Amino acid sequence: MGLFGDGANGTHQEPLLLLSVEESVSVEGIIVDHKVEKEADRSSSSPGGWRAASLIMASDVFERFAFFGIYTNLIVYLSGPLSQSTATAAANVNAWFGAGFMLPLLGAYISNSFLGPYNSILYFTLLYILGLAMMTFSAIKHSSSPPSSLEVMFFFTSLYTVAIAQAGRKPCAQAFAADQFDIQDPSERRSKCSFFDWWYCALSSGMALSLILSYVQENLGWPLVFGIPCVCMLVSLLLFLVGSKTYRYNVKENETSPYSNIAKEIKQDGFSKAGEVISRLGPIWCTCLIHSVIVAQTSTLYTKQGSTMDRSIGSILQIPAASLAIFVHITAIVTLPIYDRVFVPIARALTGRQSGITTLQRMGFGMFLSIIAMMVSSIVETKRLRTAAEHGVDETVPMSVLWLLPQYILCGVSSANTNVGSTQFFYDEVPNESKSMGLALIFTNIGVGSFLSSLLVTAIERATSDGHGRGNWFPKNLNEGHLDYFYWLIFGLDAAGLIAFIYFSKSYSYRNNGGNAVS
């Protein structure tokens, strides 16, 4: 048995990019033309296909731009105009992000039980626009510092309106776009294989482009930071509506969303099946939580850390602190093709496995890189604090923000391996009729990890404070804090998590015995 568990039967794992369409997405039922309840015509001129899917994809690119544009700048707004402490702002950002990744479970249920995917996307997009319009209005009307309780309440109401809207939209958009391809048709089956790669690249580009809003924030003000995403969601809605007559609709009456199948399985088979899955996957799921905690830092404390440093490039360009997060997205986009096209063939020749390494080994490698990222973050922060002390500065430290680049890149490589590896692992290792449970576990892990990050920051702030809001690790002025201690703490927790992960992985027996054999 190899490191991270080759499985009791010596089975091999298949990389996510090489999964067959049947394994990755199951499309059942009759796919119909717009308002025509008959089996769709398979000809190239029929509705659906790339034309319909591309409109949904383009719509979602604008949505990702809007959501991550808010996310990457939120901590700056909370700690600036809303006058929150660094710890409180980071906790609020993590709580909001965590809610956004926990609520898709509810969104999928609403779509399946009441609205259907098309109406869910439509109605939740309208709610999305409302929330962003409220945020824009809040920024325009903000005038006092510190803000009044009413202003804060209104802003957070609008903020969580956006979270609810994106959560309702999130589980529907990609599934509906994938439904535009019929796996019974050979050409569309090939297109569907490519679709998921293009979907990932498109959304990653939307997330990367959202960092333009960091420049808007520094030069044009907060109303535009929230107003531009609002306009983007209007464009997203228009793109989605344009394709209404080209979409294919699934009219199978008993078709259920992946998430609602969980309740159905429990109702039919009792808790034994769910308990079996949880007992097998639970330890692995728990050891992955600390990685989700680390990911949360890239748009919270990393951003605050960069805001205290010299962000000038030459005498003209000023880099917004939040813009460095683009390297997380770029690194992930670059490394995934390299992994699939370069690393896998080499590893396959060495190990004899079709996928090169197992999914657990890939996840372990990503977690190891996250440990290195935290170590680098701690070292850089120690140097930043030392530089601040030597120069006696209270605000901008004479140290280039590019010192943060390595930790962003390491987080990008780590996320690319851990996220893709865990996606494949949790999908493959649940029973065929319980694939929805595996998908739900992925979203839940990210959401719970974000909440844990929020709780950890809050607990440490209270434990290290002198009772008057001073002396803690996360003061308003980070030059007086100890962010380095926090990074070292996460480093230790991540190392302990990796040890536990290796322990459980070595004894793990893969469920699939034949799907990953050498060709």
UniProtKB/TrEMBL annotation:
Q: What is the membrane topology here?
A: Multi-pass membrane protein
Q: Where are the transmembrane segments?
A: 65-83, 95-115, 121-140, 198-216, 222-242, 319-339, 359-380, 439-460, 485-504
Superkingdom of the organism of origin: Eukaryota
Q: Supply one GO CC term from the record.
A: membrane
Keyword Membrane assigned to the entry: answer is yes
Q: Sorted alphabetically, which InterPro entries does this protein's record hold?
A: MFS_trans_sf, POT_fam
What are the UniProt keywords, alphabetically?
Membrane, Transmembrane, Transmembrane helix
The record's GO molecular-function terms, alphabetically, read: transmembrane transporter activity
Which Gene3D superfamilies does the UniProt record give? MFS general substrate transporter like domains (1.20.1250.20)
Cite the Pfam families for this sequence: PTR2
The family database entries (SUPFAM superfamilies) matched by this protein are listed as: MFS general substrate transporter
Q: Where in the cell is it found?
A: Membrane
Give the protein family: Belongs to the major facilitator superfamily. Proton-dependent oligopeptide transporter (POT/PTR) (TC 2.A.17) family.
Q: What is this protein called?
A: Uncharacterized protein
Provenance organism = Stephania yunnanensis
